Amino acid sequence: MFQKVLIANRGEIALRVLRACKELGIQTVVVHSTADSDAMHVRLADESVCVGPPPSRESYLNIHQIVAACEITGADAVHPGYGFLSENAKFADILAAHNITFIGPSGDHIRIMGDKIEAKRTAKRLGIPVVPGSDGAISDEKEAKRVAAEIGYPVIIKASAGGGGRGMKVARSEADLEVALQTARSEAGAAFGDDAVYIEKFLEKPRHIELQVFGDGAGRGVHFGERDCSLQRRHQKVWEEANSPALNSEERARIGGICAKAIADLGYSGAGTIEFLYENGEFYFIEMNTRLQVEHPVTEAITGIDLVHEQIRVASGGGLSVRQEDIKFNGHAIECRINAEDPRTFTPSPGTITHFHTPGGLGVRVDSGVYSGYRIPPYYDSLIGKLIVHGRNRVECMMRLRRALDEFVVDGIKTTLPLFRDLVGNPDIANGDYDIHWLEKYLAEDD
Ligand code: ADP
Q1: What is the mean pLDDT of residues 398-405?
Q2: Are residues 237 and 147 in the same domain?
């Protein structure tokens, strides 16, 4: 087991990882920018190192400073959290070259999954169902037309280097194709410095369903069931649940089995999430994230397994603590992402939190790094906390969520809490009847 882990992140996820380390008796080092000197993760860690000024590029993304912080403090492993350097293959390689363990998969696996064309090709080879489309990058309009005619309209043009929903364009007929191709290509070139694009069938009303997987790096793979993250705004997840209201246990076992086997065959190590669009009973792979996800607590709630403990165990060579048959799904869990944003326009609302009171009671978990009197710096993501509620079934979970939301107080800034108070009372949400476009339509109707 590791002696000392450096946490290369901030906010609620830094605290989340810190808690797991403390439970495992591992010393903790956190890094922080000058804007985060009074952050909770800095206060609670055994040691802290300031790695730079507020902009992420100069602090939380500053590989040289972070490696230096490891050397100064004698940390033998780094947990990257999510975002920042968590999917940076170069960072994983540099740590390996310094004999510091990256708590995550190999640089090569990060690289494969970071290139969407390569990821899709790999998924297909491993027997994971993918969206019908071009085999690789599209070279010209002629090829785009041929592929689109084969798979049928509407189609979507996507950037190979894509992320955050950028560089994607839909073409509903051949007449739209030329413009869609050109726009997607130039957006991709501008955003990612790589204008390779590919084409796939556009699904009209899918759900976003993702499988939590784990590999032990020695040929064993397991799945921890799915999360339904269909409630999104601008491709950003807002509300996540486990299990999905749309799947039954046979479908879960089928897709879970496919994913676990793929992870085993890949020789993957650590936590990963295989994301699918799900429509008319079929799964279509869209991407794999090679890290812990923001929404991992809903999986922890229904399985009772600490996923960060598992990440640390696997990275230290101790293997997974569970076999597939030990992983049981109990009840239902929902997570709401509390952002420092206007609940309707989603404009960021940084500032000082004058009063912060979190709900409690059976089945309620709040992961947050903020406190009364905390000033939210304007430089980073607007997520200030996550409310995760668990019940024996979805009805009980929704009842508990409603009262937990009523208890939650965040004064001094705007937050997304009022949006969730509206959503718990909505009949479609109560029935679990929504797809990936539901939330945007709901917000547009409300204006
Ligand atoms: P990114 O990495 O940029 O987030 P993804 O491939 O994960 O890109 O897709 C982001 C979102 O775009 C999906 O959650 C879905 O809403 C939409 N999308 C992607 N591919 C398709 C498709 N083939 N049909 C319909 N919607 C899609």
Answers
A1: 98
A2: no
User: Ligand 1 mean position to 400 CA, how many Å?
Assistant: 32
- Whether residues 221 and 328 fall in one domain: yes
The residue segments making up the domain with residue 96 are 4-103
How remote is the CA of residue 165 from the centroid of ligand 1, in Å? Answer: 7
pLDDT above 90 for 196? yes
CA of 202 to the centre of ligand 1 (A): 9
- Where does the pLDDT of residue 264 fall: very low under 50, low under 70, confident under 90, or very high at 90 and above? very high
User: Measured between alpha carbons, how far is residue 398 from residues 163, 237, 278, 289 in Å?
Assistant: 32, 18, 23, 28
Of ligand 1's listed atoms, the one at least distance from the Cα of 167 is 3
Measured CA to CA in angstroms, residue 191 lies from 160, 194, 198 at distances of: 12, 8, 16
Cβ 436 under 6 angstroms from ligand 1:
yes
Rounded-to-integer distance, Cα 419 and Cα 422, Å: 5
Closest ligand 1 atom to residue 165 Cα is 3
Find out whether the beta carbon of 287 lies less than 6 Å from any atom of ligand 1.
Answer: yes
* Residue in the block written with tokens 């064309």: 117
As a dihedral over the C-alpha atoms of residue 201, residue 204, residue 205, residue 211, rounded to 10 degrees, the angle is 20
Question: Residue 210: CB within 6 Å of ligand 1?
Answer: no
Give catalytic residue positions.
Answer: 291
pTM of the model: 0.96
**Ligand 1 pocket member 334 (CB < 6 A):** no
Query: Per residue in 226-241, pLDDT tens?
Result: 999 999 998 899 999 9
75/142 same-domain check:
no
pLDDT band at residue 93 using 50, 70 and 90 as cut-offs = very high
Q: How much is the pLDDT for 162?
A: 83
